[in-house]
Amino acid sequence: MTSGKQVLSHVHFDEHPFMLSGNPPLDELAILIDSDFSMPEYCRALFAKIISIGLSEVPLFLRYQCDRVKDPVKWINTLEKLIKLNVDFFDTKHLDHRHYKFISQIDLKRHELQTSLLVNHRTHHLRKSVSSFTEEKEYCFRSVKDQLKDYPTYEEKIGFLHDQIFDYREDSLDFVSCKEKPFDVLCELEIEKLEKKESLIQKAEIFKSKKSLETMPASKMKINGNVNYLVDVFYQMKERNILDATPSEIAAIINRGFLDKKGKEIPLSTILTILDPSRVEKRPKEGKRFKMK
Predict the structure, then answer these.
(1) What is the pLDDT of residues 85-99, one digit of tens each?
(2) Does the N-terminal peptide bond of residue 217 adopt cis geometry, omega within 30 degrees of 0?
(3) Phi and psi of 265, rounded to 5°?
(4) How far does the chain reach from its first CA to its final CA, in angstroms?
(5) How far apart are the C-alpha atoms of 293 and 236, rounded to whole Å?
(6) N or C: which end of the chain has fewer CB within 10 A?
């Protein structure tokens, strides 16, 4: 390294771990400062370590410094900037090799740090939001609930949940969260909830239909034939004990539900006369009756 005429360019390190010279115990990998701290003095001491440290110790030196800062990626990027600003100090073949060694090791260390950050971030995310996972698939119940919105029918939702349970139980899991119920149990609870909801919807629909029928004004049906044919059918059902009702009850049903062929109300007296066992002549003749087998 050329000395005397060249002046070291310094950069700003947000974090700058160092030790004061002469204060034991001294660590060979520590950055030593002889006097009060200043950023130029820190850069000078750091650069002196870059020039003097054994090449085999470069990875250890970078690890040592990165372990002592909160943001190692930022520290190592600033170190790279310091070296690049002062590249002219590496003015011999030996120092040029040292420059290459540091730059290559900085790249490796940065990649290691960034990879570790990504893995830690993903692991933290997975442990926080995912019930279980394998190398191939994540089992996240929150995601399943979001996907359920894409299935329009109750049957499709239930089928999707059963598929998730089957896949989960068939898979070999690398991680299972202890912070919530197992993924398959959560899916089963969701199926139970959907089934209860569907049952309530069906009951509500039945109730609405019944209510609608109850409030709907009764409309009478017109008979396109003689009244005595219809009344005789009821008479035969009563006679054969198919229908357990009194003549008055039968007459009331026919009166409320039917009109004659002219669209007029059928009098109760007329119906009761036809239902009278002694008034055979009022009912259809034997060959013309509707036969009840």
Answers:
(1) 999 888 888 888 889
(2) no
(3) -65, 145
(4) 122
(5) 10
(6) C
Q: Give 156-163 contacts, CB < 8 A, sequence gap 24+.
A: 157/194, 158/191, 158/194, 158/195, 161/187, 161/190, 161/191, 161/194, 162/191
Question: Among 39, 50, 34, which Cα is nearest to 13's?
Answer: 39
> How far apart, in Å, are the Cα atoms of 284 and each of 31, 139, 255, 280?
122, 76, 19, 8
> H or E element: which one contains 61?
helix 58-66
pLDDT average, residue stretch 177-190: 83
CA 254 to each of CA 9, 78, 84, 105, 199: distance values in angstroms, whole numbers, following the listed order? 111, 100, 107, 102, 37
Percent residues over pLDDT 70 in the chain: 85
pLDDT of residue 1: 46
Distance CA 235, CA 229 (A): 10
Give this prediction's pTM: 0.41
Instruction: Please check whether residue 126 is in contact with residue 138, taking contact to mean a CB–CB distance below 8 angstroms.
Output: yes
Which parts of the chain are beta strand (E)? 19-20, 32-33, 132-133, 138-139, 175-176, 221-222, 258-259
d(CA 226, CA 253): 17
* 141 vs 293: CA distance, rounded Å: 62
Q: Are 237 and 249 in contact (CB under 8 A)?
A: no
